[in-house]
Amino acid sequence: MIRNLLLAGVALPVIAAGPALAQDEAAPTQEDEILVTGIRETLRTSIDVKKRETAIVDALSTDEIGDLPALSVGEAIQTITGATTHREKGGASEIALRGLGPFLSNTTFNGRDATNGSGDRSVNFNQFPSELVNNIKIYKSQQADLVEGGVAGTIDIGTLRPLDYGRMRVQGEIKANYSPYQDKIIGSSAWGWRGTLSYVDQFKLGGLGDIGIAIGVQRNSVSNPEETVAASTTWTACNATALVSNNNCSEVTREQAAAGTPFYLTPNALTFRQISEVDQRDAIFGAVQWRFSDRVELNLDAQYSDREFIENRRDLNISEMRRGHTAVEYDENGIIQRLEGSSAVESTATHLSRAEEYLGAGANLRWDATDRLTLKLDGSYSRTIRKEVERQVRLRTDQFDVNGTRNFFSTAPFASNNIRVPYVYEVLPGNYAPTVTFDPRFDVTNHDLFWDDARARRDESRRQNEIWGVRLDADYRMDGFITTLAVGGRLAEQTYRDYDVRNENTYNPSMAEDQRINQLCRTQFPQTGFLDAAEGNSISSWATFDPLCLMREYTGSEDPGLPASLLSPANRDVTERTLAGYVMAEYESELGNMPIRGNFGVRVVNTKVESIGLRSAFDLINNPDGTITLDPIDDSFESVTIKSETTRFLPSINAIFELEPNRLLLRAAAYRAMSRPAPSGLGAGRTFSLDTSGTTVEDAISEIRANGSPRLKPLMSWNGDLSLEYYPDRDSLFAATLYFKEFSGGFIPFVTNEEFVIGGQDVSVPVIQTANSPDKSQLWGVEITLTNRFSWLPAPLDGFGGKISYNYADTNFKNEDLRLGDVLDPLTGTVSEGIIPPAGLSGFSAHVVSAQLYYQLDGFSIQGIYNYRSNYYQDFVGSNAQLRYVRGNETFDLRASYNVNRNISLRLEATNIFDSPKITDMPVKGSIRQYHYYGPRYFIGARFRL
């Protein structure tokens, strides 16, 4: 309903403006000489950028810093046609273009590749403050001088060049932040703040030329509370004809499913999670532009961002969702509607901290060697380091409570030593959150029930992504049909290294000691109204504990520190070396009386990958709680190096036909593009998944997954774009683009046996990896943009304006589920049919809508920003994992400002006003995995300019 009303509110005035837009462009009026500022200036500048570019480009640009319509770069980008975001912690993070996932895009910062702490090739745009960025370009079609580009497009973030800015500016902004969800956290403040200060100036140095400097800093201190119910990331197809009331369900095989054996899909575990968080980010952006003469110019720029957040998590876990099933009800797709089961129940307290540091720097020297020849030399460096430390203590139910009183669920008809609680799980019609009902005699808020098998776990992970690059370009201006000939090359080295290590022990001291710790570390449930907006949720609180108190009392220290060795079979060490070159010609001519212009060229990209993995023997450890742990034997580690190499030729051509000069343009583009796998996806490590119910080594190791496939090749595509653009005036645009992509190969799992020494035994275990499939697939789509200032309305309604964009795409691309989808036999090349259907491209949404409606009068402006994205498949970064779908979602943000005078303005901003949740399914659509709430956020502040 919200969507329909808003779309109507924006679209109808634009359509009604048709007669006005159809008029010939009038001669410049006095209004054209008036200084245009604010939202209208941003949209006008963005239209100008699109009009000037040779390739098919959409942009968000402003002459001023701090005027992009969003709180972060990610939220700004999603106002651009065809761009949409994946939201994390309530804010925009990774970007999908034209409904295509982040891994299909290439992201640059001032034209240079940027690193990421997630292990993929996209960028966490939430890391960068929009107040220190003043232009964003998205290249939808490719051209040769982009060197690499991406299948979906290239996103380039640009910062201010101070000499080009041309004036001195001191600007500061302070905002107070209010989060209603944080107000639900007991004993905490719902308020935060962010402050920004920037300075731009120019100086004459006499014989040394002119120099300009720009520097901006920001401190952002906010809270990002979350509340969620989520299932595990591993799902099983259970054989519905072989229910076992006192053990795990039996998995159905591919052959059984193909023969018609009924099955239902269940996760390994289910978690109710309450999160309170403190989030702080510091950012510094700087630039120096030194023009030695009319022929020589040096540009230096650097960006630094340091973000740290601390989460306190309180979890209620149903840890054995595969166990004790009876009375299972499911639909024709295997989606559970209701089941009865029994599981150990856990209260888990976690303290998690993450620090992410980004550093980017570059130097660009431009030399106009002659009136025709320009040389440009560029060097760049980018590094992201993300470190995460998680300290967690789990307490389980037992046949007795902590006072030694026998629990009801350990008596008949259950075994005398039973620790499992009966429950009913159901998803009621119309509800998104699953309803979990425990036997009424089991009180989840009773601390006495959670005390046994205390497991203290410390996980530490560190990811480092680093890129060095150097680039040389030469442009030669010519006379005739070809106006410029450009050649260039780029040499780059990217490294990705990580580790993920764990200290873990299970403790069973005396009952008296458990009782003491239980009493000492109890906490009040830290939130009111937990998941009260989630229809179907049945659990509003449970017994919680202080994680650091538990860690200290069981281990003797709040932080036990790293294990003795950081070596692990799961570690990744990837080096990727790229050598790329291009030649491109720009041309200009006439076809009859119609001006035409464009470019054509070819890129050649050679990529070499070297991935190092570790292999070791393992000790098999039987823990006191009955679980099994594999412990690598340090002195048995061996290094395995896997290398691969590819060379790809990427031709491209862009043409612009000026059907009506400067007003009606027809653009056409044809090009070949490539997108490489994520750096973390090229790892050579191994990750072990354990089945704690196994009685032998072979049974215990349910599977081994490769945490990357070094021999994965780039995803290639042939592409065609056709765009019609109409520019009636400087504030108006109508654009429609039709595009087509043909992909060479998708992705498919394959399984090979590898030998491991476990517990002194030689064990052959299937290892799941990912390969390029031989299939071809297609995608086609259309995107439409309408922008108009309603100047044809009488005053004061002529202050209204709007923009609406829509992207529709369709594809037959296939991504198979690692455990339940089609699987390739690498020896025979045959494919075994999977149990569940495949997904499409990661990040692919069929429908993407962005709409803006603004009103600007004198010093007052207000803008509503609406975004909608239909459901999409989202892979798990850096590992071979199962299919996950994000349901369609919509958000509405609001921005308002009032200029008190030319120096001071007041500002109000609100994000996610209607509290849209994020809902995910797994491993098929409709099988709910997670229901996630962030809540809205409000900002009020003031800005000064001198």
From TrEMBL:
Indicate whether Membrane appears among the record's keywords: yes
Where does the UniProt annotation place the signal sequence?
A: 1-22
Q: Where is this chain primarily localised?
A: membrane
Domain of life (superkingdom): Bacteria
Tell me if Nucleotide-binding is a UniProt keyword of this record: no
Q: Which family does it belong to?
A: Belongs to the TonB-dependent receptor family.
Keywords from the UniProt entry: Cell outer membrane, Membrane, Receptor, Signal, TonB box
Gene3D superfamilies this protein is in?
TonB-dependent receptor, beta-barrel domain, TonB-dependent receptor, plug domain
InterPro entries, per database record: Beta-barrel_TonB, Beta-barrel_TonB_sf, Plug_dom, Plug_dom_sf, TonB_rcpt_bac
Q: Name one Pfam family in it.
A: Plug
This one is known as TonB-dependent receptor
Q: Where in the cell is it found?
A: Cell outer membrane
Q: Which terms in the GO cellular component ontology are assigned? A: cell outer membrane
All copies of the TonB-dependent receptor plug domain together span 52-153
Q: Which residues form the TonB-dependent receptor-like beta-barrel domain?
A: 412-913
